[in-house]
Design goal:
Helices cover 37% and strands 27% of the residues. It has 108 residues and is α/β, with parallel strands linked by helices. It has one domain: Glutaredoxin. Strand 4 (77-82) and strand 5 form a beta hairpin. The chain is globular, with a radius of gyration of 12 Å.
Length: 108
């Protein structure tokens, strides 16, 4: 389990779309082996970037509407939202440096 808030279709709008600023939403599932590889990396990045961005975990199985709406076709996927709009995405179990580089770019 990640350090971020757990999200599903019923809480997606309130927790992600209605939030100001930058939100990193990791789409994952319990059965997904690459998701388990990404979890400690995502947690570490969330700790390092606390206060600069919000980090949440979206259960892909409990969020089919959000997955379809935002074109999530593979897990894990990290979608970066700014003020409710997708501004970037990373698909797959990316290394920490890649995620941090994208966050640095988005934070400016």
């Amino acid at each position: 389990m990640t350090t971020g808030t757990q999200i599903n279709d019923s809480t997606f709008a309130a927790e992600i779309l209605d939030q100001p600023g930058l939100v990193a939403a990791k789409f994952t599932a319990e059965w997904c082996a690459p998701c388990r590889v990404l979890s400690p990396i995502f947690d570490a990045v969330a700790t390092s970037y606390a206060g600069k961005a919000r980090f949440v975990e979206v259960d892909g199985d409990a969020s089919p509407q959000a997955s379809v709406r935002f074109g999530v076709r593979g897990l894990p996927t990290i979608l970066f939202f700014r003020d409710g709009e997708v501004v970037s995405r990373i698909v797959g179990a990316a290394p920490r440096g890649h995620i941090e580089k994208e966050l640095d770019r988005l934070i400016g």
